[in-house]
Amino acid sequence: MTQKLYLGSGSPRRVELLRQMNIPFEQRVLDVDEVYSQDLKGAAITDFLAKLKGEAQQKILLPNEFVLTADTIVWHNGMALGKPKNEHDAMQMLSSLSGRTHEVISSVCLSGIDSQKCTNDTTKVSMRKLTTEEIEHYVHTYKPLDKAGAYGIQEWIGLVGVAKIEGSYTNVVGLPTHKTFELLSTTQII
């Protein structure tokens, strides 16, 4: 029986990374209320949300179908920075990251009709001190409201503002490709 893989994410960056990995898939996005307990910290948050997104998809999977779901947060000062609510929120987030090191945590979950396997990765990102003008330019020009921590490392801010990363670059983009490949390989999806 041929296995079929869905990507349960609306992220164009995750779509592009899977395509670059030559993994055949179809995109199928379901709306999920991304609410988690405030008791969760770091990777426990992204693990929970990636599993939650997978559970929503499990109800409509067939026996030979699997869905890959993911979640990414920026972890800074003991807090999760998700997607900003508006431009002001985005500028506040970037100001707090400016001149400091934070962690980007992504979890990936592979769900079948009655199984889930998850993995996660953490990358340390150091930003140089950004000026108010640079932050305003980035937020107004690139509209990073759909990105955890209010920035995309693959965009202008990553080119001019990120001084150093320790760990996987693709994890910061939103899909740790090496861990995703291992997950799909060990479950014989690819």
| Overall number of domains | 1
CATH topology: Maf protein
The biggest beta sheet reads:
7 strands, mixed
The CATH architecture: Alpha-Beta Complex
Instruction: Specify the CATH class.
Output: Alpha Beta
How does the helix and strand content classify structurally? Answer: alpha/beta
User: Count of DSSP helices?
Assistant: 7
DSSP strand content: 25-35%
In whole angstroms, the N-to-C terminal distance is 13 Å
Shape: elongated
Provide a brief overview of the structure.
The chain has seven helices and seven strands.
Write the layout of secondary structure elements.
Elements: E1 4-7, H1 12-20, E2 26-27, H2 43-58, E3 65-76, E4 79-81, H3 87-97, E5 101-112, E6 115-127, H4 132-142, H5 156-161, E7 162-166, H6 169-173, H7 177-186
Parallel strand pairs: 1-2, 1-3
Antiparallel strand pairs: 3-4, 3-5, 5-6, 6-7
Helix pairs in contact: 3-4
Explain what this protein looks like in three dimensions:
It is a single chain. The chain is α/β, with parallel strands linked by helices and 190 residues long. It has one domain (4-186): Maf protein. 36% of the residues lie in helices and 27% in strands. The chain contains 7 helices and 7 strands. It has helices at residues 12-20, 43-58, 87-97, 132-142, 156-161, 169-173, 177-186; strands at 4-7, 26-27, 65-76, 79-81, 101-112, 115-127, 162-166. Strands 1, 2, 3, 4, 5, 6 and 7 form a 7-stranded mixed beta sheet that branches. Helix 3 crosses helix 4.
